[in-house]
Amino acid sequence: MSKVVLVTGGNRGIGKAIAEAFIKAGYKVAVTVRSGEGPEGSLSVKADVTDPASLDAAYAEIEQKLGPVEILVANAGITRDTLLMRMTDEEFEEVINTNLTGAFRVVRRATKGMIKARYGRVILIGSVVALLGSPGQVNYSAAKSGLIGLARSLTRELGGRGITANVVAPGFIDTDMTAELSDEMQADYKKRIPAGRFASPEEVANVVLFLAGDDAAYISGAVIPVDGGMGMGH
């Protein structure tokens, strides 16, 4: 029987590519959305990772329609980029609440069923800036760094129950967000990437798909960069 996958923020960009890859591979896929719909073939559930009640309702709907979540991809995230001296408390806290605390909330709820089943895959979508740093992204890089500690502590707690937890750390990806950058900025960023190009969302999705499969059962607590060599694993 095909396993049940939940992708948070699965209606655009990397999240949508991940959801589509799982659908194509024959998984039963649910995606959380705040607005709009997920890709064709997925179950879209309205949820906000900053609202625990909405997440409980989303999980209940997924469990009723598809079954318990066996593979969780915590992808939902936001940016509020600005330099440290201009960053407000709200801009910092909003990013932490969505990108880090939001991931904690979805992981906490998913692992209930995983512990019972003695099986689970938790895949957190991080970023190259978690360890490399990025000016104007103190909030974002702090949140993405926090995901590494979350995955590694989860591995220590639940590794003996057939549950793995890993972080996929993308670099610059061809999405709507990067398309908005000027040609000059895009060229400047590409100079810093040894591969000399941005990744496609599908290249990130393929790594997530691997971590969800049986071939990756002995990989846990890892940070896997998909960044064309930009961060060199740091």
Q: What does this 3D model show about the protein?
A:
The protein contains 8 helices and 7 strands; from the N terminus they run βαββαβαβααβαααβ. The protein has 234 residues and is an alpha/beta fold. The chain has one domain: NAD(P)-binding Rossmann-like Domain (Rossmann fold, 3-Layer(aba) Sandwich). The chain has a 7-stranded parallel beta sheet, sandwiched between helices. Helix 2 runs parallel beside helix 3. The protein starts with a strand and ends in an 8-residue tail after the last strand.
Summarize the structure.
The chain is of the alpha/beta class and 234 residues long.
Secondary structure elements and pairings:
Elements: E1 4-8, H1 13-24, E2 28-33, E3 43-46, H2 52-65, E4 71-74, H3 89-117, E5 120-125, H4 129-132, H5 138-158, E6 163-170, H6 176-179, H7 183-191, H8 201-212, E7 223-226
Parallel strand pairs: 1-2, 1-4, 2-3, 4-5, 5-6, 6-7
Helix pairs in contact: 1-8, 2-3, 3-5
Beta-strand residue percentage: 15-25%
Largest sheet: 7 strands, parallel
Spatial strand arrangement across the major sheet: 3-2-1-4-5-6-7
Overall 3D form: globular
The pLDDT mean sits at 95
Name the descriptors.
Rossmann fold, alpha/beta, single chain, 8 helices, globular, seven-stranded parallel β-sheet, 234 residues
